[in-house]
């Protein structure tokens, strides 16, 4: 597989090298798929794996990963828009990273590109509530608290953390998404749930691997659970998806790319145990 992997090297507008590793030419994807099948000869691809390409390391297709990370992007944007401290930290981080290695900082060159992921109406409501300033004079007239509240919305609408889970750059975007989600204490289970439509788009094996975590099956004995999984596996895809969705109903289960990791300092020792 490594023989088909490549790297694209370019130069950005500041003359710095931009390196994107782990890329595969579209024409080589068939060869990669063949190698994957040789590596796991016992596995047979499901017809649902045609949804946006072969599954990535997560076991989900590129199209499904993109839709999941789109849902998380909307949730993160909403969280950052209400958290001025995180928004300010993001701006300082970005400016600090941009300035690293620069010999002469003539003046700030901050630019933003607002993106719309179907949440524009929500962000516009926040803008109206905060009376966004339109001139430098109006900004100076605001106190720091009001400025940070405005900044939070403006930073939030630039965030794009959607990806296919198919490249090294996507891995970096997922890590950034994890860091921001942790910073705003994102509870993705309040924004998304695994319904039948989700399970229709996943390989059966992915669902069967996840099912032992479902509340009803987790209580069963090992033999009883194995028999239940075997029976479910024999169902046609639509009935199977409905059954899996029912098993996970009210469970707050999330696929790996939507799980918010524990942020540093989330736990602290408050006292010695007896």
Question: What can be said about this structure in brief?
Answer:
The protein has 274 residues and is mainly α. The chain has twelve helices and two strands. It folds into three domains: 1-43, no CATH class; 62-100 and 110-191, no CATH class; 196-248.
Characterization of the model:
The protein is mainly alpha-helical and 274 residues long. It has three domains: 1-43, no CATH class; 62-100 and 110-191, no CATH class; 196-248. It contains twelve helices and two strands, in the order ββαααααααααααα. It has helices spanning 29-39, 62-81, 84-99, 120-130, 136-141, 144-156, 168-183, 196-200, 204-210, 215-218, 222-233, 237-248; strands spanning 5-11, 17-24. A two-stranded antiparallel ribbon has the order 1-2. Helix 2 packs parallel to helix 7, helix 3 (84-99) packs across helix 6 and helix 4 runs antiparallel to helix 6 (144-156). The radius of gyration is 23 Å and the shape is globular. The N and C termini lie far apart (54 Å). The model is unreliable at 40-45 and 101-106 (pLDDT under 50).
Quickly list its features.
single chain; 3 domains; 5% strand; two-stranded antiparallel ribbon; 274 residues; globular; 12 helices
